[in-house]
Amino acid sequence: MLDLVYQKQKEKKYILLFLLYSAVFLFIYFILDSLNGGYSKMIEDYGLYLVIINIVINIGMSLFSAHMFNLSSAMVDLTKKEGKGTFMTMFSVLFGILTYGCTSCVIAFFAVIGITFSVAVLPLAGLPYKLASVLLLMLGYFWLRREIKHTQCKL
Where do the domains of the chain lie? Predict the structure, then answer.
């Protein structure tokens, strides 16, 4: 099944979806960085290296997320069943919104749901949290691959 799913990634539909998903995720990740003070503030506080690291991670996470969405879409096309590993992509985006967002937004969000504490100061402009999102994506990817490997087509 895994080979069939990867073969479908070469179709025009999946290439276009990959580009669209990548652009959407890249937009979200860049917005999150701008809400966290922006790149000029990162350069001022930590230097250019942190901006470069953040941009590279943003690009990697958006491509990886788009790939996971495509794998899940291909699995749905082939089996008519949704993979459970796909939720990790959206969970990592939600995690990113809660941790990279401006402190006042995050505090207000947590206060609405009854949590009265929040991360007030994010080290290295939230880089550790971004790395945690990368780990969540990797976990979701391996979970999704395992699911695809052990799924069978309906006949």
Answer: 2-149
